[in-house]
Specification:
Elements: H1 23-34, H2 47-59, E1 69-71, E2 78-90, E3 96-106, E4 110-112, H3 114-125, E5 128-129, H4 131-146, E6 151-159, H5 160-163, E7 173-178, H6 187-198
Parallel strand pairs: 2-5
Antiparallel strand pairs: 1-4, 2-3, 3-6, 6-7
Helix pairs in contact: 1-2, 3-4
Length: 206
């Protein structure tokens, strides 16, 4: 039987009062002026509004219910989800990065609903981030939701702050957060990395 816990409802401090001008629109207009553009020309006239709307939608992402649990059919079963692609924003340059996530945990008494992994991943991606913290936050929340101490999250991402600026060279960075039995070299970690490599998931080649 599924057990769903209602998340606490809180007001959104990022939401603008209805009918009030969004301060982000003025920021966008000023940005256009500073880079030598005319914010009133055709093609840009509505850009400040779209810019403000996008920021509000991105940081105001609501993951919905993420606490749906099912009874586990066996103890210590490895649950493995791969190729969860999310987009986030580098907090150093405010440029996007994508990250393909592999999430694994050893089940105890409960199994987390499959779609909830995507919701958890998006919850932590929809803000200013760094990849290392993203995978750590996802690992911690999966552990909290499932009650399992044995959690691993591996992320591989391309960062436009490197692809579009500076050295301007595409590359993919791998980072991982291992908890419990996955922290040590052993059969559980070997099984995880073997699965990641054979399934096409985000496997670090260590």
């Amino acid at each position: 039987m599924a057990v769903t816990m209602e998340p606490e409802q809180v007001s959104d401090p990022l939401e603008c009062p209805q009918g009030a001008p969004d301060p982000l629109e003025a920021i966008a207009r000023q940005l256009l002026v500073e880079i030598g553009e005319d914010p009133d020309r055709e093609g840009l006239a509505d850009t400040p509004r779209r810019y403000a709307k996008w920021w509000r939608e991105f940081v105001g992402y609501e993951p919905g219910k993420i606490e749906t649990l099912f009874g586990s059919i066996s103890d210590n079963q490895l649950v493995y989800i791969s190729d969860l692609l999310v987009w986030s924003l580098c907090e150093h340059h405010l440029l996007p990065f994508n990250c393909s996530l592999t999430i694994a945990y050893r089940s105890d008494k409960s199994l987390l609903g499959l779609s909830k992994f995507g919701r958890v991943a998006h919850k932590h991606a929809h803000k200013l981030q760094v990849q290392e913290r993203l995978v750590a936050e996802v690992a911690d929340e999966v552990s909290q939701l499932t009650g399992s101490a044995d959690v691993a999250v591996i992320g591989r991402g391309e960062h436009l702050c490197m692809t579009m600026r500076g050295i301007r060279t595409p590359a993919r960075m791998t980072s991982a957060a291992f908890r419990g039995v996955f922290e040590q070299d052993g059969p559980e970690r070997t099984q995880l990395l073997t699965l990641a490599q054979t399934s096409g998931g985000s496997a670090p080649r260590w």
